[in-house]
Amino acid sequence: MEQGKKLRRPRTGRMLSGVCAGLANFFGLDVTLVCVIYALATVFTAFAGVIIYIILLIIIPEEENRYFQQ
Description:
By secondary structure, the chain is mainly α. The chain is about 50% helix and about 0% strand.
């Protein structure tokens, strides 16, 4: 992995909130592959993936806006 690479939810290229896209970008995988793995894991764990998704949504920060600096 690259030095200084951070886990962030991207502002572009996401479906719902960007958790799967952020994980895919961080690990260098295809977003579709991460979404399929997440969907299968959710179904086979009696929908515990929904709770994990909500926790990751809270934990992973959103990517900074390049046009608006706080």
